[in-house]
Structure formats: structure tokens, C-alpha cells
Specification:
Number of strands: 4
Strand content: 15-25%
Largest sheet: 4 strands, mixed
Shape: elongated
Number of domains: 1
CATH class: Alpha Beta
Structural class: alpha+beta
Distance between the termini: 59 Å
Order of helices and strands: EHEEEH
Radius of gyration: 24 Å
Helix content: 25-40%
Length: about 130
Amino acid sequence: MQIQINSDHNIQADERLAEYVRTTLQSKLNRFADHVTRIEVHLSDENGNTKHAGKDKRCMLEARLEGKAPVAITEFAETLGQAVSGAAEKMQRKLSSELGKMRDKNTRAESPDFAKLEEPDFIEPGEIV
């Protein structure tokens, strides 16, 4: 699972931040590594340097699933750490749901269609078959 980190000009993306993002995503999303080829991380500060209050830090995650459309979520928080952690948890729930739906669809496709089975002949009570 490849992790690609992007940030806007208001975020000072250093190696320490990149390592925190990678560690957080790998710990939360490692169980999906067989199905996810790449995760793109977009970090931004919505207010820039003008304001420092409120939930203005944004972490948008986009997971690329094998053979499916990308899945994206966004999390806003007061700090980048909270935004990354919250986004990782949201993505964990989203991927669980998406992959669960895929498994259910495959399971249903393999199960027999009971409507096509022939109805058994009527057997009289007490009759030995």
C-alpha cells in the first residue's frame, strides 16, 4: 500500500509530519493492504495564516481500491494530528463497509438460486419413499 502525501502552501510538510501520517494510516488501514493500492493524503489549512481558531485543518484521504472507483473522505479538526487521526478512522469504517459489500455481493452470486429448484412430488402421509 503506497501512501502519497500532498500539502498546500500553508502547511509546512516536514519528515516528522510525513512519518506521523504514514504511521497513523498504516496502523489503522493495514488490514486493507491487500485491496488498497494507494492512499493519497491531502493536507490543508482552510484559513491559512489569517486565523488560528476553529476546525480549519483539513485532511482528505483518497483510497484507490483494486478494480473499483476511488473512495474519498474528509476530516476537519483544530490540529493536523487530529485531522489525520480522524480521517484514518473514517476511512477504516468506509473501507470496512465497501469491502464488506463486495464480499456480500460475491457470496450472493455464488449461492444457489432456490427459486429455480424443482418442487418435489407430493408424498402422501405414511407413504414410504
